[in-house]
Design goal:
binds nicotinamide-adenine-dinucleotide, six-stranded parallel β-sheet, 467 residues, alpha/beta, disordered C terminus
Length: 467
């Protein structure tokens, strides 16, 4: 099929590359010239494992361009995958969605296309996009848009860091439309994924227990709500274990063991039950805020979702509280932050806890040193005036520091030479924000170990956490 993708960020690029790799003809259009120039040279503008290799393999069937007129005409399916960043009052900023919808109407040259919203958009946006595309088409072409378009929603569930895996071996594909033809077109498009008929790449093997991928076909509003409801549920699972972690600290329980004991219940499941610093990233904060705000428009209070948001904010504040309790005075102290990206295996810094923690520490008069194995360059570009010291290694970050805070659980941080690190620090305090460090080893190196759950009484052997 001939497919256009509007917006080549984490979602649009992954979708475009995967569809081209599966055999579709794909045109990816983005307004960011520098991004498109990189893509044309085969360089992904984001860090995502295997993406460069995948792009190279799909190269013959993919076009990267800034020109709508080169991308849109003749398309059978047009995906909108532009950003929907947080706007004022909890609602996402829909200016990019608006511009994309208008451009589709302007540049579509007849035939029939399914316009698919892949961006996470407030419930009801499908109808809004429909109206925008039609209005623009009629304005620019002087004829009715009837019979030219239909609208669908196809929410995205990929996780940054495993985006290709999550796209090829999805848990499910959700498509929503009030038009049955749109659903048929999307079924045809996704058939290789749904039926798993492609030969798996050696570097991304198919999970052994994966059968056919379920397709969930719904109306437009249900598909839009599924995305928000799924993200909010994951967010509140994280906040739930963090809240239990706070109680664990008070009663002297080991949150790691508690999480294990809860998660082995098949009704609950063990994923998203790692207590720690809480969630970051571009989605959970924005999507939970949008859910609360949409519900408010209908006179509903989303109390559970609101509570999850409050707990998440509190976890970050607790980092500063813990350091203050330990060091007594923060002014003039040097604090080393290990990890900037909001999670490992990505360079995405949106809503990254590290940045907020750095700001809070700077406000308290600390000197803040930071490191990330992948996101440092992006950090320098996006936060040039934050006022922290960027370091080239975890070890260098800790030199002369009063405390080290593990913010992002990059595996390499567990493997660092903690003994040498201890020797170079002013005070040997480590705050393990993700509960991943081997505290037996740290204790041997002379560290005073802290985390956000207070499971300091747990036997050291059982407390060393597996990711
Ligand atoms: N990142 C994720 O993990 C993830 C997962 C699921 C859903 N989502 C949702 O998908 C959407 C996209 O997220 P993302 O992380 O890929 O965003 P992103 O910011 O990485 O990418 C958006 C891209 O759209 C481009 N763009 C903006 N306006 C445009 C226009 N008018 N025409 C063409 N290109 C335009 C930007 O230049 C940018 O490259 C958001 O709604 C997000 O909530 C993201």
């Amino acid at each position: 099929m001939k497919v256009t993708i509007i917006g080549t960020g984490y979602v649009g690029l992954t979708t475009g590359v995967c569809l081209a790799w599966l055999g579709h003809e794909v045109a990816c259009v983005d307004t960011d010239k520098s991004k498109v120039e990189l893509l044309e040279r085969g360089i992904p503008p984001i860090y995502e494992p295997f993406l460069e290799q995948f792009m190279a393999e799909a190269r013959e069937r993919i076009l990267f361009t800034t020109s709508y007129s080169a991308a849109v005409p003749g398309s059978q399916v047009i995906f909108i995958a532009v950003g929907t960043p947080p706007g004022p009052g909890g609602n996402p900023d829909l200016q990019y969605l608006h511009a994309a919808a208008r451009a589709i109407g302007q540049y579509f040259d007849g035939g029939y296309a399914v316009v698919v919203n892949k961006s996470t958009v407030p419930i009801g946006s499908g109808n809004w996009v429909d109206a925008l595309v039609r209005e623009s088409y009629e304005e620019h072409h002087g004829r009715s848009a009837d019979g030219q378009f239909s609208i669908a929603s196809n929410p995205e569930f990929l996780r940054e860091g495993t985006a290709l895996h999550d796209t090829l071996y999805a848990d499910r594909v959700v498509v929503g439309s009030d038009n049955s033809h749109s659903l048929e077109v999307l079924y045809t498009l996704y058939r290789p994924i749904l039926d798993q008929t492609f030969t798996a790449p050696v570097y991304l093997p198919r999970p052994e227990d994966l059968g056919a991928v379920p397709l969930v076909s719904t109306d437009l509003a249900s598909a839009e709500l599924i995305k928000y409801a799924a993200n909010a549920f994951l967010a509140l699972k994280i906040s739930y274990i963090n809240e239990i972690g706070q109680l664990a600290e008070k009663v002297g329980a080991d949150i790691t063991q508690v999480a294990k004991g809860i998660g082995l219940d098949a009704r609950i499941g063990s994923r998203f039950l790692q207590a720690g610093l809480g969630w970051g990233g571009s989605c959970f904060g924005k999507d939970t805020a949008a859910l609360v705000s949409t519900a408010a428009e209908y006179g509903l209070d989303m109390r559970i979702v609101e509570a999850a948001r409050i707990v998440n904010v509190r976890q970050r504040e607790r980092v500063v509280d813990k350091l203050l309790a330990e060091l007594k005075i923060l002014k003039g102290r040097t604090i080393a932050l290990l990890g900037l990206a909001f999670k490992p295996n990505t360079d995405d810094l949106r809503e990254a806890p590290a940045i907020e923690i750095a700001r809070k520490l700077l406000e308290r008069g600390c000197r803040v040193k930071v490191h990330d194995p992948v996101a440092l360059e992006r950090f320098r570009r996006e936060h040039p005036s934050l006022g922290v010291v960027c370091c080239e290694s975890g070890e260098q970050t800790a030199e002369g520091a009063d405390a080290v805070v593990l913010v992002t659980e990059w595996p390499q941080y567990r493997e660092m030479n903690w003994e040498a690190l201890a020797a170079s620090m002013r005070t040997r305090i480590v705050l393990d924000g993700r509960n991943v460090l081997d505290r037996t080893r740290l204790a041997r190196a002379g560290f005073h170990y802290l985390n956000l759950n207070g499971d300091v009484h747990a036997p050291a052997e059982t407390a060393a956490v597996q990711l």
